[in-house]
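Please go through the protein record below and see whether the fold suits the sequence. Record follows.
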Amino acid sequence: MSGKTRNKTFCRLDPNKIRDVAKKVLKTEAAAISALIDKLNSDFERAVEMIYECKGRVVVTGMGKSGLVGKKIAATLASTGTPAFFLHPAEASHGDIGMVTGRDIIIAISNSGETNELTGLVPFLKRFSVNLISMTGNPKSTLAKASDVSLDISVKEEACPMGIVPTASTTATMAMGDAIAVCLLVKRGLNEEDFAFYHPGGSIGKKFFIKVKDLMQSEDRLPVVPFGMPMSKAVMEVSSKRLGHAIVIDKGGSIAGVLTDGDVRRGLEKWGSKLFEMTAGEIMTKNPKMIAADELAAKALSVMESYSISALIIPDAEGKPLGIIHLHDILKQGIV
């Protein structure tokens, strides 16, 4: 049957049949992960301790799909405080093994435990006393027997109808890698700020590194009106800076209140056109919410959400306006 014919046949399948296949895949993979729980023994604990005590790096290696899973495991370890990198076993046998030192630990992944590219590395690892942790579906395999610690990641069945496509086995391997990484994370006492340290360019890093002073509007962009300014002019200031807010200051230049679009709307409802004959000080909201310039932008967002407001004033040490931070400026940075 040609590929074109197979595709046409598949497209004619009842949608419910497709969903049934998908459900079976998910149930099979879920069962494979659940089965790992009973395999968590002293060997797992020893593996975590070995990695925790490692003075070098964790070198993860594996061929094919195991290698792809290994790259993810290495990335997860590195992002949670455990120095790690992926080493392709075929490249290792052609010189890249020189990247491994006696202070490192190898995590070798092979479902069969007989992958030639991995078993071929064993003599080198033994010669230089490099600790070896294997993750294999065959506890009696060559790789498992050569390891200091072997973790059983065997599965009852793969999720594909043929039972040979790496599906449940790769899912189980990745889950075991996550279990190791999280145990190390907890053991190291890693907190959110530590985690953000390894993610300075992502949304997590932004949440813990970007401060109010980095995003606030100041100087020429800062909308400020005197306490006695007529509302006819104050409204123009609110509108021209496009922040929906203006900081109202007293005669000494200190913050007296805030004038918002909402204050203007409510004033029009109450006073009508007479609003424009009144002063900013008469219409403003007193005791506006403020935040220090050195606080995290994420905290500013939390305060805004708590009070259902869209901006906060930043005062200086003397209580005079230093800046204003708007909700949109925070959200544009991907801080949520």
